[in-house]
Amino acid sequence: MSSYSPLTTHVLDTSKGEPARALKIELYKSTGESEWTSIANGETNNDGRLPGLLTQADFTRGIYKIKFDTGDYFRKNTVEGFYPYAEVVFEIQDPNQHYHVPLLLSPYSYSTYRGS
Prior knowledge:
Blueprint: E1 7-8, E2 11-13, E3 18-19, E4 24-32, E5 35-43, E6 62-68, H1 70-76, E7 86-92, E8 99-100, E9 103-106, E10 109-112
Parallel strand pairs: 1-8, 2-9
Antiparallel strand pairs: 2-3, 4-5, 4-6, 6-7, 9-10
């Protein structure tokens, strides 16, 4: 997998004030109403990032979903969490742009936004 990806994410554990390391991520693309196909997956690195998630050739217009396995992450860190996973659904209109979808995470909340 190349290190460049037109779609990136960064997960920060705000309860620790540090990156969420070894958090499993799966990327899906919508193939119809309520139907999803898994197109990529991986685990965040020591900086809470997942480089090379998707190639430019595989990045097309459409609706995508990133599933963050927060339950597994908190269990590995012996923390009781409320959300077993967080899913962020977004639409790509122009695949020539770069899209950054970060997740700010704590055991009882999470938030996201379109970054740069």
